[in-house]
Amino acid sequence: MKAETAVKRKTAEAWIGLGSNLEDPESQLLQAFDELDALPETRLRARSSLYRSEPVSDIPQDDYINAVARLETGLAPLQLLDALQTIERAHHRQRIAGVVNGPRTLDLDLLLYDDETLDHPCLTLPHPRLHQRLFVLLPMREIDAGLRIAQLGRLDKLIATAPAMRLQKLDR
């Protein structure tokens, strides 16, 4: 009888930034956590609290609710990005040409994928504005205070040098 060997697919640690400021943003994020956990070959390993933050935009709009999730996934980076965009579309995310940082029902950003760096037309890793966003850095610290980010350095240093903004941790 022939011995069979099972091929185990490598899993990666992926960090996802979540944000919403339309159509009950807190519920949008809480539902998105469940949807992230339900992705194929993926498990939600940790999630931050929710944070209220001011918009990073000149467009008048409501405050955002933000959070971060840490996933374990067997999906490759571009597969994961596609899955994130599918979830966004299910939440009726509208992408308007020429409008950057506009209001949205749900925004899911792939922030980190293990220690990989990637410069692809559809995806840059680490996320190119990660170090400028306290609404991402503070929730990340809540999950892993000692995190070191490829090409950027220690999380505590990034927090100390990020631009100031109005940010409030919520009870949820």
Q: Please identify the top-level CATH class.
A: Alpha Beta
Structural class, please? Answer: alpha+beta
Q: In what range is the share of β-strand residues? A: 25-35%
The string of secondary-structure elements, in order, is EHEEEHEEEHEEHE
CATH homology group: 7,8-Dihydro-6-hydroxymethylpterin-pyrophosphokinase HPPK
- Using DSSP, what is the number of strands? 10
**Count of helical stretches:** 4
Radius of gyration: 17 Å
The averaged pLDDT comes out at 92
**Biggest pleated-sheet summary:** 6 strands, antiparallel
| CATH level-two architecture | 2-Layer Sandwich
Q: How many structurally independent domains?
A: 1
General shape: globular
Indicate the CATH topology: Alpha-Beta Plaits
How far the N terminus sits from the C terminus, by CA atoms, comes to 56 Å
Q: Uncertain regions: pLDDT < 50 for 5+ in a row?
A: 1-5
